[in-house]
Amino acid sequence: MSWVQIKLEVNPKMVDELEDQLLALGACSVTYEDAQDKPVYEPKLGTTPLWEKTILIGLFTANTPMELVTASLENYFSPEPLPSYRVEIVEDKDWEREWMGQYHPMQFGERLWICPSWLEPPQPNAVNLRLDPGLAFGTGTHPTTAMCLTWLDAQNLNKLDVIDYGCGSGILAIASLLLGAKQAIAIDNDPQALQATADNAQRNHINPQQLHVYLPENFSNTTTDVLVANILAKPLIDLAPKLAPLVKTDGLIALSGILMEQADQVIAAYAPWFSLDYFKTQDGWVCLAGRKIATH
Ligand SMILES: C[S@@+](CC[C@H](N)C(=O)[O-])C[C@H]1O[C@@H](n2cnc3c(N)ncnc32)[C@H](O)[C@@H]1O
C-alpha cells in the first residue's frame, strides 16, 4: 500500500502545535527530524540556516486530497505564507504499524462512534461504525468529515433516504444507515472510493439492498430526503444545479469541505433552492446545513 506525505520545514517552536494540526487534518502519523541530522533541503544564501529548522512529516493515506490539507495549512498560517513544503508518495508498509497506534475510537454527537477494527468499541451499545484507514478519504479524523458525522447524528434519519455525494470511504452513507436511514446512495467519481464503500459496508453488515454505489455518470436521478456532500467549495458550487433537484422539497442538505472564507459563495450558489446556515465550524472549515425551500 502506498501513502502520501507532506514534509514541512518549520520553526522548531511550532512543532507541537503543527503536529496537532496535521493530526486534525487526518494524518495517520506525524514524525519529525531535525534538519541538521538529515538535510533534506539545500541551504540557500540569505535564508535561515538549516539547523534552525525542523522537518515535520505528516503521513496520509494515498487517496487523501492533499489540496484539502495544503489549503487548510495555508489558512492556518495566514496571513503568513505557508512554509516551504513538499508532498511525496511513500511506499513503506512499516507505516501501517505507526498509525495503528494513533487511530483511536472517536465519538460524534450523542450516539455515533467510529472504531478501528483492531479495538473493541468502548461503548458496545452505541452506534459503532467499524472503519480502518484505507485508500479512500474518510476516517472521521478530518474536520470536514467529523462535522458531517455530528450533523448526521443530530438528525432523525428513521425511514429516510440519504444520498452521500463524494462518498470516499462511504463513512457518511454507512453512518446514515447505522443511524436508522432506510436506504443510502453513495456516489463518487473515483472507482476506488466506490470499492472502499462497498467493502466498508460489508464490514459493517449493511444489507446490500440498502446501499447502492454509483459513478456520477451511472446514477439516474432520483429524489432523496437527505443529501450530504463533503467535497471542496469549488466542486460544490459547480454541482449546485445538479444536486438541487435530487433533494425533495423540505428535504435536508449538509455541505462540507468549505473553508470559512468560501462559505458565503457556497451559500449564494445554493440560495435559489436551499436556506443554508452554519451548522458548525472546526479548524477553519465550515459545515453548512439547511432545508430545500419550495420553488415555483
Ligand atoms: C473530501 S472526500 C470526502 C469523503 C467522505 N464523504 C468524507 O466525508 O470523509 C471527497 C470525495 O469526493 C469525491 N469527489 C470529488 N469531486 C467529485 C465530483 N465532482 N463528483 C463525485 N465525487 C467527487 C472524491 O473522489 C472524494 O472521494
TrEMBL record:
> What keywords are assigned to this protein?
Cytoplasm, Methyltransferase, Ribonucleoprotein, Ribosomal protein, S-adenosyl-L-methionine, Transferase
Indicate the enzyme's highest-level EC class: transferase
Primary location group? cytoplasm
Single Gene Ontology BP annotation: methylation
- Record-annotated residues binding S-adenosyl-L-methionine? T145, G166, D188, N230
One Pfam annotation reads PrmA
Q: Name one GO molecular function term.
A: protein-lysine N-methyltransferase activity
Q: What family does this belong to?
A: Belongs to the methyltransferase superfamily. PrmA family.
Protein name, per record? Ribosomal protein L11 methyltransferase
Name the source organism.
Answer: Zooshikella ganghwensis
Its ancestry begins with: Bacteria, Pseudomonadati, Pseudomonadota, Gammaproteobacteria, Oceanospirillales
